[in-house]
Structure formats: structure tokens, C-alpha cells
Design brief:
Layout (H helix, E strand, L loop, with lengths): L7 E3 L6 E3 L6 H5 L8 E4 L5 H8 L4 E5 L5 H7 L6 E4 L13 E7 L7 H14 E12 L11 H11 L10 H9 L7 H12 L10 H10 L3 E8 L14 E7 L3
Helix pairs in contact: 6-7
């Protein structure tokens, strides 16, 4: 499918979209480089962030979940110094404990269900050296597009039943469809919704409450350096708001 706008496009042979903008918290990740322990990029997409890190002289390991695309990525980025491997949270992580000084996990957690989120946080802690950090962004339950169709109410009701539960929604495509139907035919919403159906396999999608996610990291032993909501105008949707994205920086104590 052709690129829908200048900020995102579907990933070839992969789940989801790639974003043509640098990560909003990129500096936090770059500053993790200690001259020895590599930086890890989980879900590297088009490698914009990894390229930035490599240009600073950092050793970078960029990962994708589909092993079939690794040879293609290696060929595309030959000579950059970036290393590539296959990683699938939380079970397929081919690295030893205390390997990395910084982990960038951009727009991946919303593909995980509750138990997978907790297991991934545990693995992050194990993978980091003392003093290392996780830099993470994911989709917020305050996503502006889905407020008129009841997303926030669904998430609040879930927390009222279990304050620690971060269970993904299996009906998320129904919510997107309902939001699309609020727009007339011919509106970009219809094209973007069709792209979502192509990019995402039927399953589940998660939306996060920042304090709840931060608490899960703290329970694993992390110190929270940053937890906030922010805009994400690169998201592949037709309406954006100031609180669409959860942003987190969590450090492993030294």
C-alpha cells in the first residue's frame, strides 16, 4: 500500500507501521551509551533511531520480531555498524542478562496483553546493567480518536475491577470501526482504517494508563525518571490529541 502521509507507512512483511520521525525521547536513549554496553532498539522499523545512535559512535543492536526481515535490514544498513537480531517480547530474547546500557521500546507494548507486559518488564530489568534505562512509548487510553466511542470508560471500568490489570482489548477493531463511521465516506478515516486492517492481524491491542504502567515498573525494582502523556501526531490515525501517547523513562538502580 502507498504511504498514507509523511509521518507513517505500513511495514513490509511486519506487523504495524513504521514512523518517519525520530523518537520523542531519543536523547534519553542516546545518553545511556556508556562507551561499552550496547544500546537495544526493540521494534526498530526503518532504523531512524538506531542510525542516530550509531552516528554518535554507540554500539547498537536493532531488533524486529519477524526473522525473515533481518537479512533485508542487514543489507539495507550495511556499513552503518548497526547489528540486527530477532526479538519477540517477552519470550524470544537472545541476549544475556546485564548486556545493555539502554533499551528503546517504541510503540511495542500496545501489542502485548497483561501477562506479557509484566514479563517484558522483568526481562528489561534483567537485560540492563545497573544504572541502565528503559525508554518506552506506547498508546494511551486517552487516545483522542477513540474517546467518542467509549475507550476511556472501558479502561476505567477495568481498573475498578482490578487496579493492577492492564488487559488488552480484543474488540479494539470494533472501536476503530465505530470511530471511522462517525466520518463521511471519502474522509481519510476510511483509507486509514483499511490500512489498519491490512497492518494488524486480528487479535488484541492495549491502551495504557500512565500511573498504572509506572507502578508495574516500580514493582519490578525500577526507579521512574519520567512518566507523562503527550501528543503523537505521527500515529496512523485521522484525529490526534495532546494525550495520545504514554512516555516513560525507568532506570535500574546502580
Amino acid at each position: 500500500m502507498a504511504r498514507l502521509n509523511h509521518d507513517f507507512s505500513p511495514l513490509n512483511q511486519r506487523v504495524g507501521f513504521t514512523f518517519n520521525t525520530l523518537h520523542v525521547l531519543l536523547k534519553y536513549w542516546l545518553d545511556c551509551w556508556d562507551g561499552s554496553h550496547p544500546l537495544l532498539d526493540i521494534g526498530c522499523g526503518n532504523c531512524l533511531n538506531s542510525l542516530q545512535a550509531a552516528e554518535t559512535g554507540a554500539r547498537v543492536i536493532a531488533t524486529e520480531l519477524n526473522p525473515k526481515v533481518i537479512p533485508e535490514l542487514k543489507e539495507q544498513h550495511r556499513g552503518t555498524g548497526i547489528e540486527f537480531d530477532c526479538l519477540h517480547l517477552p519470550e524470544t530474547i537472545p541476549f544475556k542478562d546485564e548486556t545493555f546500557s539502554g533499551i528503546l521500546c517504541a510503540e511495542v507494548f500496545h501489542f502485548l496483553d497483561h501477562e506479557e507486559v509484566l514479563a517484558s518488564i522483568q526481562r528489561f530489568y534483567d537485560l540492563l546493567i545497573p544504572g541502565g534505562k528503559v525508554i518506552l512509548t506506547t498508546v494511551s487510553e486517552d487516545l483522542s480518536l477513540l474517546q467518542p466511542v467509549g475507550l476511556k470508560q472501558l479502561r476505567v471500568a477495568q481498573r475498578e475491577r482490578d487496579g493492577s490489570c492492564m488487559k488488552a482489548l480484543r474488540e479494539y477493531q470494533d472501536l476503530f470501526c465505530a470511530a471511522r463511521n462517525l466520518e463521511p465516506e471519502g474522509h481519510p478515516a476510511w483509507e486509514i482504517y483499511a490500512a489498519h486492517l491490512d497492518a494488524y492481524q486480528p487479535g488484541y491491542f492495549n491502551f495504557f494508563y500512565p500511573e498504572q504502567l509506572a507502578t508495574a515498573f516500580k514493582r519490578q525494582g525500577f526507579d521512574i525518571e519520567l512518566i507523562e502523556l503527550g501528543a503523537a501526531n505521527h500515529y496512523p490515525i485521522w484525529k490526534h490529541g495532546p494525550q495520545d501517547q504514554v512516555r516513560l523513562v525507568a532506570g535500574k538502580p546502580e
